[in-house]
Structure formats: C-alpha cells, structure tokens
Amino acid sequence: MRHQASYLAVSALFCSTLIATGAAPAAAHGGPPPIPLPPKTAVATGYGGAVASVSPYATQIGIDVLAHGGNAVDAAVATAAALGVVEPFSSGIGGGGFFVYYDARTHKVTTIDGRESGPAAFTSTVFIDPGTGQPLAFNDAVNSGLSVGVPGTLMTWQEALDAWGTRPLGEELQPAAKLAERGFTVTGDFNGGVAMNQQRFSDITPTAQLYLPGGQVPAVGSVFRNPDLAATYELIAQKGIGVFYGGELASEIANTAQHPPMTPTSDRVFRPGVITAADIAGYTAPYTAPTHVSYDGLDVYSMGPPSSGGTTVGEALNVLTQLKNSGWQLNYTTQAQQVASLQAYLEASRVAFADRNRWVADPAFENVPTAGLLSPAFAASRACLISPTKTLTSPLTPGDPNNPSTTCQAQTQQTPNTSTEGLSTTHLVAADRWGNVVSYTLTIEQTGGSAMVVPHRGFLLNNEMTDFDFTAIHPPAPDPNLPAAGKRPRSSMAPTIILRDGRPYLVVGSPGGASIITTVLQVLLNRLDFGMSLPDAIAAPRISQRDRSVTEAEPAFLSSPLDPALTAIGQNFVPAPPAFTPAPELGAATGLEFLGDGRIQAAAEPQRRFGGSAMVVFPSPSE
Ligand code: GLU
Fold this sequence. Notes:
Low-confidence stretches: 1-28
Structural class: alpha+beta
Largest sheet: 13 strands, antiparallel
Oligomer: single chain
Distance between the termini: 48 Å
Bound molecules: glutamic acid
Number of strands: 18
Strand content: 5-15%
C-alpha cells in the first residue's frame, strides 16, 4: 500500500551533476564568512511567488529557489532543509511531517504522509514499564530510545520532488549545507531551544558536543556552525536517500537509539530503543488523499489520518456551518457578538476533539471513519449539543460518525483527557509564479526531540512515538492510537490549503501539538468570519479548547473583557504553557492569501517564536 520511492536512478543522475559542478560546502575555518541574517518581516505582498517560515534564513533560501526558476515544491524542500539547520529543535531529517500540495496544472490537492512509523518490535505495551506494569512517565519515554520512530522527512522531500519538483534533491540541499558549513547567526528561538533542553542535552555526548559548546547555550547573535550536518546533506546529495533508508545512516540511527550515547557523568535513566536499520530501510511516505469540507462556499483541504488535523478542523468547520445555518452569527462587530462567536468556536472545537480522540489514528491499522467524521449529518448531531449560554462539560462522550445520533444528549466521560503532545514543530508555506502551492508542517515532536544527536551526523532524532497513547485513554472504549509495529502515531498537524472557485485562496498551518488544530481553526475563523486580514488573523490572541475542563489562553486574551464574559457562561481559562518566548503562546502560524489581483500576501508571526519571516519574489511597489 505504501508508495515505494524510485530514488536510486534519480540519485545516480544528480550525483554525477554534483561532481561535475564541484558543488561542495566551503571550509569552516579560513573559508568564507558566516551567512548574515537576512532582514526579517512578518508580512510581504507581491508577485512571482512567496515563502513564509519561522526563519529568515529558511525563507530567503526558498525565495532564492523561486527567483531562479524553481517551483513551489523545490522551494519548500530547500526551505525545509534550511529549517533543519537553523530550526533543528523543531524539524530535520531525524523527524517527519505532512506535505500538502496544490497543483496548478491539474487543480488537485494531494498530500504526502511523511509520518514516523513504529519499529517492527513495537507492541501495544511498549510504553508499559515491565517492572511496575504501569505506563512510563511521559518524560521518561521522551528521553529514551523507545521514543524514536522511523524518520519520514527525507523520504517526503524525495517523493515531493519526484512527483512535482523540477530539481534533484541534491541541488535543493546545497543552500542548507552551505548554511550549516559557513555558519549562521543564533536567533532567540535557537538559543531558547537549547536553553529549555540544557539539562537533557548535557546528558547525551554528541548532543552536548554540538549544541552546548564549552558547556554553554549558544548566545543570541553568536555564530553557530554544524559541519557534521553539512557533510550529512552532502552525503545524501551524492549518494541519494538510499544512504539513509538502508545505508550507513540507517545503521547509525538504529545504533544511537539502541545504545543512547550518554555522557559519562549522566545519571539519567535513558531506556534503549528497539528501532533497527531494517525498519528504516522499509519506510515509505505514501501519497494520500486530503480531507475536504466546504465552508462558506470555499473548499478546505487538509491532512487526513494518521493526522487528526484535517478531520478535526473539518468537523469543527462543519459544526460551525450547522450553527450558522440555525441562525448563530459569527462576527466580531460588538463585544456580545465576539463572545457568541468565540463560544461557538470553543464548543465546536470541544466536540470535534472528543470525536478525534475516539476515532482518529493510523488508517493502515484502524478503521478510521474519515468520511463520517466529515459528514454534515454527523456535524448536525454534534452541533445540536452546543448552547450560546451554557458550556459543555468535558471530557465528552464521543459521537459515532458511523451512526450519528438522532437524539441530542451530551454525556460526560469519567476519565479526564490529558494532553501530552509537545510544543515544537514548524510550518512553512510556498507558492510559485505558476500557481502551485505547498503547505508543509514538519516536526521532531518535542522541542529537541529525543535529545539524541546521531554522532558525527549533526541531526537530532525524533521522539514521535510518544504521540501514541501509552494505555487506552477511556477504557473500556477502544483506543485506536495504541502503539503497534509499523503503525504511525496520531498527529495534530493541519497543513491546510483553501480553494475558492477551484483556485488557491488561503493557506495556513502551525506547530503546537494538539493546539495546532485550534490555531488553524482560529486563524481561519478570524480571516473568514471575523473580517480580519490574514496578518491580523495570525497575530490575534489565541485560545485553545481540546475537550478538556480548561481552555488554554494567551496573556492578551486573559487580560481582555472576553475572558470574564465567556467565564460567565462556563468556560474555564488557564494560561497557555510556557513556550520559546518569555510570554506563553499557542502555535506559530504561517500563511498565504491570494489577493485576487495577481498578488500574494505572505504572513508569519509578528511576535510568537520571536517572530517569523515572510517574503515574496517581487514585492508590490507599496511594500
Ligand atoms: N507531534 C505533534 C503532532 O504530530 C506535533 C508536535 C508539535 O507541534 O509540537 O501533532
């Protein structure tokens, strides 16, 4: 079922190209100087293509690809490779992700499932401590070889380029390899990514050597080089991805996870992993169908299972459509209307999360009712639970999309929902002059992943396997997200592309664990219903309800009059968890809007994650 890559022939081709052109990274010492930090703006409008990501280095590399004739897929891969250098605690070839692509020639949206998969030795009890019979503490699982799944990112890049790109992977890796070799300026989020992981990074020898030089967190403004990663990218460029999926890198990844390279002084218990080189050799990143719902006449496409992003955003939008059809107005004109609109948003998200938790998992292993979850009939059976004056009590009993209820009765489950998903990940968007569009979310799960850098290879391994439930969350109800051999854990990533009259209109995505879903949903509502521009829709304060008794909120929301007004009807707000920046935050979105006059507006965060970077190839004269 999984699509098998045909990379060997391609790699042989570009191997000779590279040798012929002598494209090798510059020497670190006595060589060219570090690459200066490009200017950073959160919004750009213009023509000829656009890119937005969390990093000006990565965005600039994508724009350069577009400016030199590459298409959106070429640009997305080059941008992602650069994020592996400058945003290595959120992404990289040790992780996975989901790639959503609109093709201007066929007018079709296709997705690539680059999710990490479970090793062959996985069973449903892999995260149960055999000594106690109890699930491992979450952090003990994160900090273990067991958390490492088969990485999917490199295969995703190869599949995307094979299907839609115009350049070989080896060429797309060159700018990132150069960045890693020559060095780049340490930014706040890079510094913060190390600082928040200092303790566990110091427990792993190759991680401490790379990211804690001299035992110190790299200072903001200093220059950081990763020649090992530059050499790894070069190796892949020359030998093709077979060197990773079946070659020497596969063996080294497996060896690292099976024998975590602890520092001699570490007293951390770091359980060994079970991933093998054969697991990595057997990996595939299949092309899959996107999810689709209609919302206000727009076609909303996103990522299907094993991500719950598309089904949960889609179900919530369908629930909101039902509410609107029954007379509920979504707009931001008065404070009363803001309260009513946010109540609809929070409650639609609450019910959609209850259903997500029960039904969504890897469709290769579980019977996931994607069509049912996205059906208007099911949305109607869930929308009728929602009241403008009274908040539902979580955790809700899920609905049955195979058999939508005809009675409207909300029920509460006994076991509380806990959220253990990380807050890392990164999202990029790219569009080209021909109208092709990419929305791509990639991750290594937690910020810093499993904390294990593969010795001498310069990249971190993911801890994506901790996205599995360690035990059933609502027994005796079945839990589709238990671990199994070859299975992919449920994700929340929601890279989204919206078409209007069959043409790209809006593109959005975000990191943030399960709050990815609410971030994407809230940005869409801000733009589509509340009349905000895309940059304002991204900047606005966020709140995140995920079928829990509490709703996470950013500080700007907690100090607004909306907090007490919604609290009065039963919502219960708590501060969002600590993040990269001193202030708690939810997500770090990037997006594109096609303005209808040939211009594209690219938007990133103005503040969150220290601000992102949006660029276009040819800025509008007013820019
Ligand atoms: N592992 C998470 C997921 O797949 C993403 C982590 C994050 O965004 O921080 O949903």
